[in-house]
Amino acid sequence: MVYSVSGTLIHKDETLAVIEAGGVGYEILIGQPAYRSLPEIGADARLYTSLIVREDSMTLIGFPSPEDKRFYENLISVSGVGPRIGLKLLSELSASQIRNAVISDDAATLSKVKGIGPKLASRIVLELKDKIKHLIVGEDSHGQDQSSRKRMEALLAMRVLGYSDQEAKPVIERVFRDPQIASLDVEEIIKHVLAGLSRG
């Protein structure tokens, strides 16, 4: 697995970057977030990469952060979402917009992206929500009080949605300081955590 590539940026456009490292030029497909993060040609650059292996090809997809990479990999785990469709989604919508659409059952927002029909949009929402629920159900909560269990479930959901523990934990703790929010069910708590993460 190629986790990241760092070296000299020798080419960039809105869909492709080439980084030279150790005498090898790595061709990396990118979307708008990665393109905006890149420096000028000739400068040092780093992209976090996902290696897509097919029968007749090996393709590197590049992202500006490990969290974007993780979210993309969860996104393309949805049946019908290939590497290019996943990249297109993350180019036309921000990761935050996609996360909020998943949590809010808002398939209409996803279907605004060209090439994403209503059926595929609904499947993305359903499968990512199911993945969150599966992780939550699979977590051993024996001996945990209700508040601790909800915190863990919210953290697991944030991991599925691409956030690191370092990003998510402080926001989760801040949300739980409000007794009214802490008393809500987990799905509502997750919405509050996402809102807090979006505000930064």
What is the fold named in CATH at topology level of the largest domain?
Answer: DNA polymerase, domain 1
What is the overall number of helices? Answer: 10
Beta fraction: 15-25%
Residue share in helix: 40-55%
The CATH homologous superfamily of the largest domain is called 5' to 3' exonuclease, C-terminal subdomain
| Strand line-up across the major sheet | 1-2-3-5-4
- Which secondary-structure class do the elements indicate? alpha+beta
Number of domains: 3
Low-confidence stretches: 138-143
Radius of gyration: 18 Å
Can you give me a brief rundown of this structure?
With 200 residues, the protein is α+β, with helices and mostly antiparallel strands. Helix content is 52%, strand content 20%.
Structure, described:
With 200 residues, the protein is α+β, with helices and mostly antiparallel strands. The protein folds into three domains: 4-64, OB fold (Dihydrolipoamide Acetyltransferase, E2P), CATH 2.40.50; 67-135, 5' to 3' exonuclease, C-terminal subdomain (DNA polymerase, domain 1, Orthogonal Bundle), CATH 1.10.150.20; 139-199, no CATH class. The protein contains ten helices and five strands; from the N terminus they run E-E-E-H-E-E-H-H-H-H-H-H-H-H-H. It has helices at residues 32-37, 66-75, 83-92, 95-103, 107-110, 118-138, 146-160, 165-176, 179-182, 186-199, and strands at 4-12, 16-21, 24-29, 44-54, 57-63. The chain has a five-stranded mixed beta barrel with strand order 1-2-3-5-4. A hairpin with a 2-residue loop joins strand 2 and strand 3. Helix 4 runs antiparallel to helix 10 (186-199) and helix 7 runs antiparallel to helix 8 (165-176). The radius of gyration is 18 Å and the shape is globular. The two termini are 31 Å apart. Residues 138-143 have low confidence and may be disordered.
